[in-house]
Write a structure and sequence with these properties.
The chain is an alpha+beta fold. The protein is 24% helix and 32% strand. It has two domains: 68 residues, no CATH class; 78 residues, PUA domain (Archaeosine Trna-guanine Transglycosylase, Chain: A, domain 4). The strands form two sheets. The protein has a six-stranded mixed β-sheet with strand order 6-10-9-8-5-7. A four-stranded antiparallel β-sheet has the order 1-2-3-4, sandwiched between helices. The longest helix is centred in the first third of the chain and has 14 residues. The chain is globular. It comes from Candidatus Nitrosocosmicus franklandianus. It holds the Pfam family PUA.
Protein backbone atom coordinates (compact mmCIF):
# COMPACT_ATOMS: atom_id res chain seq x y z
CA UNK A 1 0.00 0.00 0.00
CA UNK A 2 1.36 3.39 -0.93
CA UNK A 3 2.12 6.09 1.62
CA UNK A 4 -0.59 8.26 0.03
CA UNK A 5 -3.22 5.50 0.38
CA UNK A 6 -2.19 4.89 4.00
CA UNK A 7 -2.58 8.60 4.79
CA UNK A 8 -5.99 8.68 3.05
CA UNK A 9 -7.24 5.74 5.13
CA UNK A 10 -5.91 7.17 8.40
CA UNK A 11 -7.52 10.57 7.68
CA UNK A 12 -10.81 8.82 6.88
CA UNK A 13 -10.61 6.97 10.18
CA UNK A 14 -9.87 10.13 12.15
CA UNK A 15 -12.91 11.81 10.58
CA UNK A 16 -15.47 8.99 10.94
CA UNK A 17 -14.07 7.53 14.18
CA UNK A 18 -13.74 10.88 15.99
CA UNK A 19 -13.93 9.38 19.51
CA UNK A 20 -11.35 6.63 18.82
CA UNK A 21 -7.61 7.18 19.20
CA UNK A 22 -6.11 6.11 15.89
CA UNK A 23 -2.54 4.80 16.27
CA UNK A 24 0.20 6.55 14.32
CA UNK A 25 1.41 3.91 11.92
CA UNK A 26 3.07 3.55 8.57
CA UNK A 27 1.83 0.05 7.92
CA UNK A 28 -1.70 -1.02 7.28
CA UNK A 29 -2.37 -4.62 6.31
CA UNK A 30 -5.12 -5.00 3.76
CA UNK A 31 -6.88 -8.28 3.06
CA UNK A 32 -9.10 -7.95 0.00
CA UNK A 33 -12.24 -10.05 0.40
CA UNK A 34 -13.62 -9.21 -3.02
CA UNK A 35 -13.48 -6.20 -5.30
CA UNK A 36 -13.86 -3.00 -3.22
CA UNK A 37 -14.35 -4.96 0.03
CA UNK A 38 -11.40 -5.36 2.39
CA UNK A 39 -10.38 -5.95 5.97
CA UNK A 40 -7.84 -3.46 7.33
CA UNK A 41 -5.50 -4.24 10.20
CA UNK A 42 -3.93 -1.18 11.81
CA UNK A 43 -1.75 -2.27 14.73
CA UNK A 44 -4.28 -4.05 16.98
CA UNK A 45 -7.34 -2.42 15.37
CA UNK A 46 -9.41 -4.22 12.78
CA UNK A 47 -11.66 -2.34 10.38
CA UNK A 48 -13.84 -3.10 7.40
CA UNK A 49 -13.58 -1.11 4.16
CA UNK A 50 -16.92 -1.35 2.36
CA UNK A 51 -17.73 -0.93 -1.32
CA UNK A 52 -18.95 2.63 -0.71
CA UNK A 53 -15.58 3.56 0.92
CA UNK A 54 -16.98 3.55 4.47
CA UNK A 55 -14.48 2.40 7.09
CA UNK A 56 -16.32 0.59 9.87
CA UNK A 57 -15.04 -1.10 13.02
CA UNK A 58 -14.99 -4.90 12.84
CA UNK A 59 -17.77 -6.58 14.84
CA UNK A 60 -15.42 -8.97 16.61
CA UNK A 61 -13.57 -6.14 18.42
CA UNK A 62 -16.09 -5.02 21.02
CA UNK A 63 -13.77 -2.66 22.93
CA UNK A 64 -13.94 -0.24 19.97
CA UNK A 65 -17.63 -0.86 19.28
CA UNK A 66 -18.54 0.39 22.77
CA UNK A 67 -17.38 3.88 21.74
CA UNK A 68 -19.95 4.23 18.93
CA UNK A 69 -23.65 5.03 19.41
CA UNK A 70 -26.01 2.08 19.15
CA UNK A 71 -29.59 0.98 18.72
CA UNK A 72 -31.10 -2.03 20.44
CA UNK A 73 -33.40 -4.32 18.47
CA UNK A 74 -36.00 -6.88 19.47
CA UNK A 75 -35.37 -10.61 18.99
CA UNK A 76 -37.70 -10.80 15.99
CA UNK A 77 -35.32 -8.56 14.00
CA UNK A 78 -32.15 -10.59 14.56
CA UNK A 79 -32.45 -13.13 11.74
CA UNK A 80 -33.21 -10.40 9.20
CA UNK A 81 -30.34 -8.19 10.35
CA UNK A 82 -27.91 -11.14 10.24
CA UNK A 83 -28.97 -11.68 6.63
CA UNK A 84 -28.11 -8.08 5.70
CA UNK A 85 -31.47 -6.32 6.02
CA UNK A 86 -31.57 -2.64 6.85
CA UNK A 87 -32.57 -1.82 10.40
CA UNK A 88 -36.20 -0.71 10.41
CA UNK A 89 -37.94 1.46 12.97
CA UNK A 90 -40.49 -1.10 14.20
CA UNK A 91 -37.73 -3.48 15.36
CA UNK A 92 -35.81 -0.85 17.36
CA UNK A 93 -36.55 -0.80 21.09
CA UNK A 94 -33.76 1.54 22.28
CA UNK A 95 -31.70 4.45 20.92
CA UNK A 96 -28.45 6.21 21.74
CA UNK A 97 -28.07 9.72 20.31
CA UNK A 98 -26.61 9.90 16.77
CA UNK A 99 -26.66 12.03 13.64
CA UNK A 100 -27.52 11.11 10.06
CA UNK A 101 -24.59 9.36 8.24
CA UNK A 102 -22.86 8.54 11.56
CA UNK A 103 -21.60 5.01 12.27
CA UNK A 104 -24.11 3.19 14.50
CA UNK A 105 -23.87 -0.28 16.04
CA UNK A 106 -26.81 -2.64 16.45
CA UNK A 107 -27.28 -4.79 19.59
CA UNK A 108 -29.84 -7.41 20.52
CA UNK A 109 -32.23 -6.65 23.36
CA UNK A 110 -31.73 -9.81 25.44
CA UNK A 111 -27.95 -10.34 25.53
CA UNK A 112 -26.70 -6.90 24.36
CA UNK A 113 -24.45 -8.61 21.77
CA UNK A 114 -23.39 -6.69 18.67
CA UNK A 115 -25.17 -7.88 15.55
CA UNK A 116 -24.36 -5.26 12.93
CA UNK A 117 -22.81 -1.92 12.08
CA UNK A 118 -24.08 0.61 9.59
CA UNK A 119 -24.65 4.22 8.74
CA UNK A 120 -27.59 6.15 10.15
CA UNK A 121 -30.16 7.14 7.53
CA UNK A 122 -31.83 9.53 10.01
CA UNK A 123 -30.89 11.49 13.15
CA UNK A 124 -31.85 9.56 16.30
CA UNK A 125 -34.35 12.26 17.36
CA UNK A 126 -36.21 12.01 14.07
CA UNK A 127 -35.96 8.19 14.03
CA UNK A 128 -37.53 7.88 17.49
CA UNK A 129 -40.52 9.90 16.33
CA UNK A 130 -41.07 7.65 13.29
CA UNK A 131 -43.40 4.67 13.40
CA UNK A 132 -41.94 2.91 10.36
CA UNK A 133 -39.12 3.29 7.86
CA UNK A 134 -35.43 2.53 7.42
CA UNK A 135 -33.16 3.87 10.16
CA UNK A 136 -29.74 2.25 9.58
CA UNK A 137 -28.11 0.99 6.39
CA UNK A 138 -26.66 -2.39 7.45
CA UNK A 139 -23.09 -2.58 6.05
CA UNK A 140 -21.42 -5.24 8.25
CA UNK A 141 -23.18 -7.99 10.20
CA UNK A 142 -22.47 -11.24 12.02
CA UNK A 143 -21.97 -13.99 9.45
CA UNK A 144 -21.21 -11.73 6.46
CA UNK A 145 -18.20 -12.03 4.15
CA UNK A 146 -16.01 -9.86 6.40
CA UNK A 147 -16.91 -11.91 9.48
CA UNK A 148 -16.12 -15.22 7.80
CA UNK A 149 -12.96 -13.96 6.08
CA UNK A 150 -11.56 -12.64 9.38
CA UNK A 151 -11.85 -16.11 10.90
CA UNK A 152 -9.44 -17.34 8.21
CA UNK A 153 -7.19 -14.29 8.36
CA UNK A 154 -6.84 -14.39 12.15
CA UNK A 155 -4.96 -17.69 11.87
CA UNK A 156 -2.35 -15.97 9.68
CA UNK A 157 -1.81 -12.82 11.74
Amino acid sequence: MSKKDTERILKGLEKSWAKVTIPKTKNIKIFEIEENKSILIIDSMVAVLTANESILPFLGKTEILDIFPSVTVDSGSIKFICNGAKILRPGIVGFDSFKKNEIVTVKDEKFKKYLAIGLALEDSDRAQAMEKGQIINNLHFVGDKYWNAFKEISFRI
